[in-house]
Structure formats: structure tokens, C-alpha cells
Amino acid sequence: MGGSVSCCISPRESPKIHRREVELEECPITTTEEVSEDTGTYLQHISDRELPDELAQETNPSDHPRASTLFLNKSQTDVREKRKSNYLNHMSPGLLTKKYSSCSTIFLDDSTVSQPNLKSTIKCVALAMYYHIKNRDSNRSLDIFDEKKHPLTREKVPDDYAVVDPEHKLIYRFIRTLFSSAQLTAECAIVTLVYLERLLTYAEMDICPCNWKRIVLGAILLASKVWDDQAVWNVDYCQILKDITVEDMNEMERHFLELLQFNINVPASVYAKYYFDLRSLADDNNLSFPLEPLSNKRAQKLEAISRLCEDKYKDLSKSSMRRSASVDNMVGIKNSNAVLS
């Protein structure tokens, strides 16, 4: 699924985690002045004192696999309104156009967690960003991502650039252009979304009309270098976006990394969670993945892949059994030597 890069630790204090008053009230720190009649002076263990930080990390979806993704939460309001409107109007969109399997025909899409469909994945990622912008809490931003202060083109930035929300099609075209020109993979699109939500969480900012292009560009730039085997250089993006300079790209990349606290690691569990949440988002918005009937050739291919995976797991289990047997033999030899001595 891609290379895993261990995260670095920034020398600065992390801005992503702040102790909240509610968390401190739930986990009070006992001082030396609090004395118990039975045990005397009680000092709280350091792990108990750091519990609020651990709770804050578990609520970050880009780091913890059990936390719900931000884009799926932001889309629920619109999804509920659509369902309510369809119910009142007695409409069932998508039911007539969606293909269903039967006894004679099985429909499958060609998208898997290890090899997602590129076009469908980019559409879902663009839709997730659309909901981020539309249902944002505020307009917190940084100058490095402001499109007026750092324009991507020589064309004049409209006066209402910070007010008008971009449509889903505009976001999709922008991402598709970058992915098509740089020949990036669908896995890179998922990692781009992970980095984007990690940036919003760590830097405590919002993606809004004035900064969405540069934030998306920075996330794609970083994801392509970390995830793809053949990374795209900054100068290559300057050839795609003709009016941007290498110095601007370097500065934006440096700020992006600093805001992420150089945490560019994406665990497999987090990647899988984002993939399946994107599929849920597609189902909620009638963005179905392309379905094709299961042919004999494709069935044989799936059977071969399944058999290959099964043989691989058998080899792994055999090797683990050999290692455990060798360890048992070593323990037995040591015990016998101890008895003889």
C-alpha cells in the first residue's frame, strides 16, 4: 500500500494539542497538599497526568483509526436534508440507475483498498473537500495559503474570492488536472485527504474559498513525495501551473511540514478507514463506483489472487511456527544444561 515513513519530532511545542478545561476537570491533578489518612501524601503518576493528551490524540482521525473522519461528519447534515427531501417528495434517486446482482449476473467494481479506482477516488476526495469548505466552522487561515497574497496564476484574483464557495466540479477539475499531469495514483489522493485533515487539526485552521487551492496543492505535493515511488519534484508542478515559482512551492512545502509537526506517517489502519469512509460518502451522494458484470476471465483472476494470498498466509504461519519451535528448543536446551550443571 505504499511506504511508511516514520514521523519526526519538531523541537517546538506542538500546537495541535491543547489541554481543555473540561478534560482537566475530568482528570484532576492531585497535589502534594492532598493527604490521605491511610497512605499519606499521594503523588499522581505521570501517565495519569498525560491522559488528556492521549484522549486528544484519539480524537484526531488522521492519526487514530477509531476516530471518525472530519469530512464524513461534515457531510451528514446535507445527507439528512437530501433524505428528508426525497422522503417528502416520494423520490428514490439512484435506485433505478444502480445495478444489482442477481442469480445469473454478479456486478463488481474494480476498486479495492489496495488499488482504488482513480477517477472515482478523485471525485470522492473532491466531494469531501467540498463539504469541508461548505460546512466550515469559521474562516481561520494563514497568509502562506492565501491565494491573493500568493496567487497561482497571473490573472487577477476576483474581489469575492474569499466569499464564494467553490462548486464540487471546480474542485474536481483542479485535482484531476494535477493528478493527470503528474501521473499520480489513486492511493495518493487518499493520502492527500489525510494530510489535509491533519493540517486542519494540527494548525487549528479551516479550508475556505481563499485558501483551498494552495492547501490542496500543498497536500498533493507532500503526498506524492511520501507515497509514490517516483516522486514529482517541485519544479514539475511549476510546469503544470505555469505562473508559480519554485521558491513559492518550497516555502509552502516547508510551512506545510512545520504545521504537520513533520508527522507524515500514515498507518495502514488510517488509510483503510479513509478509503471506506470515502465509499460511504459516495453511496450517500449517489456517486457509485463503476460496476461491471463478473466474467469468466475476471473470476479466474480473482480466484488466482485469492489462492496466491492464501499460499502467502500459509507460508507466514509456517515460518512463525518454525520460529516458535526454535525458541522452544532453545529454552529446552537451556533448562537441560541448567539441570546437568
Automatic annotation (TrEMBL):
Does the record carry Oxidoreductase as a key word? no
Region Disordered: list its residue ranges: 54-76
Query: What is the species listed in this Swiss-Prot or TrEMBL entry?
Result: Cottoperca gobio (Frogmouth)
Keywords of the record? Cyclin
Pfam families associated with the record: Cyclin_N
Protein name, entry field: Cyclin-Y-like protein 1 isoform X2
Which residues are in the Cyclin-like domain? 173-258
Q: Which PANTHER family match?
A: CYCLIN Y, ISOFORM A
Family assignment? Belongs to the cyclin family. Cyclin Y subfamily.
* InterPro entries the record matches: Cyclin-like_dom, Cyclin-like_sf, Cyclin_N, Cyclin_Y
Q: List, in alphabetical order, the Gene Ontology terms for molecular function in this entry.
A: protein kinase binding
